[in-house]
Design a protein that fits this description.
Shape: elongated
Strand order of the largest sheet: 3-4-6-5-7-8-9-10
Number of helices: 20
Radius of gyration: 30 Å
Structural class: alpha/beta
Order of helices and strands: EEHHHHHHHHHHHHHHHEEEHHEEHEEHEH
Distance between the termini: 62 Å
Number of strands: 10
Number of domains: 2
Length: 487
Amino acid sequence: MSLYYYNDLPRLCYWWSNPNDAAVAIGMCLPFIWIFSWYFEKEKLAGYVQNMIWVVECAALALLVGTCSRWAIFSSLCSIIIFGLIAEKPLAERVFRPVNHQAFLPAMRQRCIAIWLQMKSMKNTGLRIFVILVALIATNAWGRFSLAVQGDKSVTNRLTLWAGGAKMVADKPVLGWGNGSAGLNYDNWYQDLSSQTMHGSMVNSYLNIAVEWGLPALGLILFFLLAGILLCHRLAGLVSPSGRGLLAGAGAMMVFFTMVNACYSTIYNSLPLALLAAGVLIIAGFYGGRKRHIALPGPMLLSFSISLFCVLSLYLFGLASIGKDPVRISHAAAGTIWLCKPGAPQKAPDLTIVPDYKILGPCHGRRIRKLFCENMDYLHAIQVVEPGAELNNCDGGRVVVLGARVGSWGTRPPKDNQGVILVCPVAPPSAPMKIQLLFLPQADRWHVAEAWRSWARQNKCPVVFLEGDGILDEAGFQKVIDYCIDS
């Protein structure tokens, strides 16, 4: 068991790497306890058995609160309510009887009575919520919720990140940016230039899916999640009490899984949790298949409508947010990025940069954007060929090849009127190349500078020396870009 501190508030991790993972695992297990509690209560087993179940459930809820994971606790509260609504749904249906549509007041009276009786029957739901509230106050975990209302960094950083993720979705809505690339591409091309935070993902599973796999994948996943929840609710009035408890647990588990994915990233990569969610869909599909003519059409149509609305809303929000940026992504495909300024003519790029992690670091895009923004008078587009991408589509009038990418460029002949500039190569020259200019570091970090000097003399290629040992700082990179823009 381990502790994790946030703003001097201790948070229990138990046997997981961080408290959020612990909270998600506990929250996914809670519906199993509720199913057993429901079954024992309906079967009227011995009181001590039901009391033992209650002790286990209270302990699990206390463990959940001990993580101080705000969103997981809130998601558990919602799943508790959903379990009660689904489990006790048939009671309302038995009390309510269809009446003449003209008799509005009697109909409303019967509906209110049905709702009241259903709420009374959800006494266990109220007790579970009461236990969580008591635990929040007793452990001072309530302090984290008050911090969220005030807007702590955990909240504001997420909101900023999600706004950038929406822009990424708007720029590549169909196929996405590629699996596992959400955090790095955000840091490179969308993060505020004043921030130095490194991100591994979007801290939101749905946005992560939309960014990496595209909006069609997000819409499909949302459809199946919502269909599972709505089917559990719809089928609860059509099955036996034992089946009703099972559907209530399945629906509560799916609600929790659906909600926690909205504030934590890539939970779907956890195999046990994904299998639990898939099991819920199988349960709902099994009952739905037996009563498909009654149960399926409504939930399916509603799931499709909600999914479509969410996908379109995300895309439109991203489009609206893009217009405020000083630099825009005008084209992003096949490992290349085109940067342009709003209002500038959308023409072929004047400059192509082929960056290398060794020379510019992992956040090369942030450095390129910064220099692009600082050169206010430069209105041409810039093309960036990402590390690892093919060099077949270098369209700029000047091509700046950095570090290890020099070896990838090789003896490739430049296009008509295209000038090639090499910056801080990390390997010696291997063949004749048609080069316009060569930048070398004053300190020979890679032990290849002498070989390049000799090559430059033989090929009459001008050489410019940069301060440092081959890792470009801002001044050195500025010098390279200024030459490319001014010459």
